[in-house]
Write a structure and sequence with these properties.
Elements (H helix, E strand, L loop, with lengths): L7 H35 L9 H16 L2 H7 L1 H8 L5 H25 L3 H9 L4 H35 L6 H11 L4 H31 L1
Helix pairs in contact: 1-5, 1-7, 1-8, 2-5, 4-5, 5-7, 6-7, 7-8, 7-9, 8-9
């Protein structure tokens, strides 16, 4: 391809692996991170369900995982990854650290999005006699939906960058391709191609996120 040792089928497979890792880890991370983000908001001192034990337990744990660079986290939880999928190498194995990485990231972004909701909305819900679950379902989440979409967009872009780093330990995807062909074989063309693909992915996802967010806020 373009005078490179790279075969087009290998490029297609790498793009598929990256999309697979991002999609699965995002879904799993969202299933964990969104509830955690909601808990951080509702259990704080002035939340709709104050609980200092839960809040002061979750907050530092999320901070600890958020503070770890992905490449360090990737190596640190190798035993846990082997326990879950039986190996620490490959695309499926990379999903475990990617999920652990993105879940607290999503939780913090969700927390920030929900905290932007006007307190008057919550007060109105209380005045109507809504329960905490009803406030979350019918008031808090709908009001923050546009911001939540942007938060998930940011999470996806962060995951794309993390999948590239996963290639350093044989995680597959674009990063693995860039390392195996571009770096180790000194193939500059491969590096350029992979960078272009990653830039296109990020631009498309960010544009879609912006459009969806605007549509939700106008409705």
């Amino acid at each position: 391809m373009f005078g490179s040792s790279l075969d087009s089928s290998q490029l297609i497979d790498s793009v598929y692996q990256t999309l697979y890792m991002v999609t699965v880890s995002l879904l799993l991370g969202a299933l964990i991170g969104i509830p955690l983000g909601i808990l951080l908001v509702i259990t704080r001192k002035n939340g709709i369900w104050p609980n200092s034990i839960i809040y002061y337990l979750l907050n530092p744990i999320i901070n600890i995982f958020r503070s770890l660079p992905f490449i360090i986290l990737l190596i640190a939880i190798v035993p846990f990854t082997k326990l879950i999928v039986g190996t620490s190498i490959g695309t499926s194995a990379a999903i475990v650290p990617l999920t652990v990485y993105v879940a607290p990231y999503i939780a913090r972004l969700v927390e920030n999005s929900l905290l932007e909701v006007n307190s008057g909305v919550i007060e109105a819900a209380h005045a109507m006699g809504a329960s905490p679950i009803q406030i979350i379902r019918y008031f808090l989440l709908p009001e923050a939906l546009g911001s939540l979409i942007l938060a998930l967009t940011t999470s996806i872009i962060g995951l794309i960058g993390a999948t590239a780093m996963a290639g350093a330990v044989g995680g597959g995807g674009i990063g693995d391709l860039a390392l195996a062909y571009g770096y180790q074989r000194f193939d500059t063309i491969v590096i350029i191609i992979t960078v272009i693909i990653l830039v296109i992915m990020v631009q498309v996802i960010q544009s879609l996120g912006n459009v969806l967010s605007k549509l939700v806020r106008r409705s």
